[in-house]
Every structure is written in structure tokens, then in C-alpha cells.
Amino acid sequence: MHTRPRMRRLVLLSTLIAILPSCFVMNDDHSSCGDGVLHSDPAVEECDDGNTAALDGCSPQCMLENPTSITWEFYTTPTSLPEACRLGVANIEVSYSMSDGTDHVELFGCYAMKPYFFGAPIVTQVTGRALDASGAVVATAVRALQNIDRARVLKFYELAGYIHASWEFRNAAGDNPGCPPGFTVTLYRAGKSTSLYTPCLLGKGHEYSPPLEPGDYDVTLQTATTVTTKTVTVSPNNAVTDVPLVVTI
Predict the structure, then answer these.
(1) Are 236 and 223 in contact (CB under 8 A)?
(2) Over the stretch 99-143, which tens digit does the pLDDT of each residue have?
């Protein structure tokens, strides 16, 4: 009399056991951005809100859209430890552009390593100037854009500076032929070399060096057929030395 209902219950129970795990899948190595299923690898997806809209907390690439933060640190040399705001620095002036196309200049009191947050992504490099009480510039700092970096630190160095190398390619007729394959930009000093990241769009590009101790440096741009070198002097206090390179290929 009770065999069939019991069998139905057993069949239903076994069916639920089979399908319940799929109802609770949080990670799926085969998921795609925007499908609402979080990938198991955070390098692939930090979030997935079921759409690919921007500025809703989860980006079109399924990365968290945290507010951008800006803070600052002071150093004596590139290898020293960060310090509090230096005596004589009263304010930090920060300039940047936002994703809505607006440009901003903000003035903050110099509180050591205290972050300030902005609600929309910053889409250009951030430039900071350390000012004394009279408004005179004590030091400058530049933080170039990195798409995945939402926490940008302006690092002010007393005994260091930067090289800002830019490059543009021309052919014999003076036209821009685009980017040659395999070109490199290298800094040389005292037998040591540092290769810069060399982005190139439509035959042009630029990049800031890491903080460098003051002194003379050779900036070399090399392609398969040309070698172009300029010698420049890096100054302290976060000074930026521009090195334009125009190469005929």
C-alpha cells in the first residue's frame, strides 16, 4: 500500500540532491563577465552583477569600481622609508581629470599618508605639488595612469627626480608611419640600465621613469635600424626632465 508513495519520495529526494549543488554554484571557471556568475579566479572577475554597465560598482570588465584614492608620502631617496609631511610643507595641490571630462585642482592640508577619495574614475595622470605656507612650490610629483590601480600615491622625493621620455616616428617624407615593431627605450647610467614601458599609439608614445638619483643619464631609443641617444641631467626634489625623441625610420 505504501510502496509507491515511498518510492516517489525517494525519487524526489535523489533528484533534489542531484540539482541542489548547481543552485549554489558561486564560481564557474567557464563563466563570462556579465552573466551573474562569479569566476573562481579574482584576476578574471572581482565581481559580476549580471550586466556590463559602467559606474555601477562593477565595471564592464567585472572589476570592482572602488572610488579612486589619492594620498602622498615623502622620501629622502628612492630607497628610503616613507616619512611624515616634511617641515615647511603646508599644503598639497592635486590636479587630475575625471571620467566625465572635467578637470579639477584640489588643495589639501598636508596630513601624512592620509587618503582622499573621489567617487568617479580618474582617467589622466595625477599631478601633485607640495606647497609651503606662502604657496611656493617645494616639490612636485607625478603619478601616471594605470587602469587597474585605484589607489594612487604621490611620492615626493628630496633627492630624486624623474625623466619624462616621449617619442615620435617619422619617415623620410616627414609623415608618421606608425610604430615600428620591437622598439625599446632604455635609461643608462654608470653601467646600469633600466628599460621603460614603451606604449606606442599611431607612432607616438611617452612614459615617466621611476624615481632616479640626481645625475647624468643616457636615454636611448632603439629600433631594428636606428639608435637615438640623448644625455640628460636629473635634478632633485622631484624635478621632471622632458626628453623628446623624434626618430626617422
Answers:
(1) no
(2) 677 888 888 888 655 556 665 566 667 788 889 999 998 888 876
Is 207 strand, coil or helix?
Answer: strand
The grid cell for 237 is 626634489
Q: Are residues 188 and 113 in the same domain?
A: no
Provide the pLDDT for residue 5: 52
Residue 12 domain-assigned (yes or no) = no
**72 and 152 Cβ atoms separated by less than 8 Å:** no
Which of residues 157, 172, 193 is at a domain's end?
Answer: 157
Assigned domain for 90 exists: yes
Task: State the CATH number of the domain containing residue 223.
Answer: 2.60.40.10
Instruction: For cell 542531484, name the residue.
Output: 18
**Domain that includes residue 217, residue range:** 162-248
pLDDT at 233: 94
- Phi, psi (5° rounding) for residue 167? -140, 150
Question: Mind listing the pLDDT tens digit for each residue in 199-225?
Answer: 777 788 888 788 888 999 999 888 888
pLDDT of residue 6: 54
201, 132, 140, 215: which is closest to 167 by C-alpha?
Answer: 201
pTM of the entire predicted model: 0.57
Q: Which of 216, 220, 236 is nearest to 228 (CA)?
A: 220
For the chain, counts of helices (H) and of strands (E):
1, 14
